[in-house]
Amino acid sequence: MSKPTRWVTDTSDGHSEWYIERFRGMAAEGADLAGEARLVDAMVPRGARVLDAGCGPGRVGAELHARGHTVVGVDADPALIDAARHDHPGPHWLVADLADLDLPAQGEPEPFDAAVLAGNVMVFLAPRTEVDVLTRVGAHVRPEGFVIVGFHVDRGLALDDFDRHVAAAGLVVEHRFATWDLWAWHDAADFAVTVLRHPPGRGT
Question: Where are the domains of the chain?
């Protein structure tokens, strides 16, 4: 049985609904919500398969879909997936726990060119599932593909710990930036965007 995520245990009742309406309001006001998607779009080939892991109400996956990519979005919160399906038809939105992710069992057997974990997904995982999540997400990505992860480093997951989880999951750090628009990484940054790859020589 899956452990409850911090999204459930560390937030108050109604948090999911507040989060959904917050981003609906920001979109209605014309806020730029596509920064993560722009970066991923620049890194993948045209018509790529992209996994939006911890997709929430779907803003990143929806933008990638609009740019011509095949998107599968996964989140453990059914309310967020319901909002994604309502607001952003097109991608395949699925309820699933990233810690035991098995998309072939849910009708998505093809591997992905990239996976994106935006919106502080790593911070809201169930405790002690970080390695499991990175392992399972990485297993769904082609050997030549990548996983890109962004989160605030001052919200419960230290960057050194994250890097240890990455290594334990069999992935390697290729690049690190301080923002999704590629500001250079520096030790005082409070946000990290990290590109992960499979080690060279990994088989199919």
Answer: 44-197
